Amino acid sequence: MSLPRFELHEPDTFDELFTLAARYGDEARYLAGGTALVLLMHAQLLEPGALLALHRLPGLRPIARDNGRLRLGALATHAELAQSALLREHVPALAEAFAHVATPRIRNVGTVGGNLAHADPQQDPPVALMALGASVVARGPGGERRIPLDEFFTGFYETALQPGELITAVEVPVAGANVGTAFIKFLSRSADDYATVNVAVALREAGGQVAEARIAVGCMGPTPLRLPEAEALLVGHAPDERRFRLAGEAAVAATSPMLDSRGSPAYKRRVMPVVVARAARQAWTCRSTR
Known about the structure:
Low-confidence stretches: none
Number of strands: 14
Shape: globular
Mean pLDDT: 95
Radius of gyration: 19 Å
Strand order of the largest sheet: 4-5-10-6-7
Largest sheet: 5 strands, antiparallel
Distance between the termini: 53 Å
Number of domains: 3
Strand content: 25-35%
């Protein structure tokens, strides 16, 4: 099936981009890597009158450390992020998540900004980024703002981005001492498929106990989910196998998985506690002493 007809624009500045976006209104779509957008266009689910390519805009590609945060340019590809020495040193679970996205061909083209803006609840990076306390940097005609990832996903394929806004970067706090992170993608089919369930965990240890916990899951509802009930069962304890199991069991209550080709809701509810417990155990075991 061929693509619908559209106009392609490649602006060099944000002012030019927003002028074009205002001209075309709802007919315009921003083009990053295009791995999701082009599929939707092929399927005739989207027929934009104009694509506004982002690749010429300044500052959207670098991966850098800045004031205690890692700043991931929105056009950084999954492959670049999976291989980033900064991510592997400071947030290895995040590099692991990017390494699990789809296939090498997709990872070489798809971008972190496009991935988050697409808001597919079955993707891997949003789960890892949420567990790490990341924020989205959004820019629109009215200026720039930061949106915590906990508040970014508002519904099935829906985000908090306002009309005309785009993601310019993702900011991730650098993990301090005694922090462990883990990402696990459980699949029932091939390694390049969406997960049956994916889980990311970040735990900070103090005095032999969990001082802070963040647990996020994907594929278990219309958006990636934080699991505060499961987190609370770990905080203030020196976790053991029983504690990990209880956290995994508590996680199920906050989810509403949907039937798909990767498993029934009942199957996902049986699998998820095991994966949550496994990820929490791995994060606790692998915590840093920097």
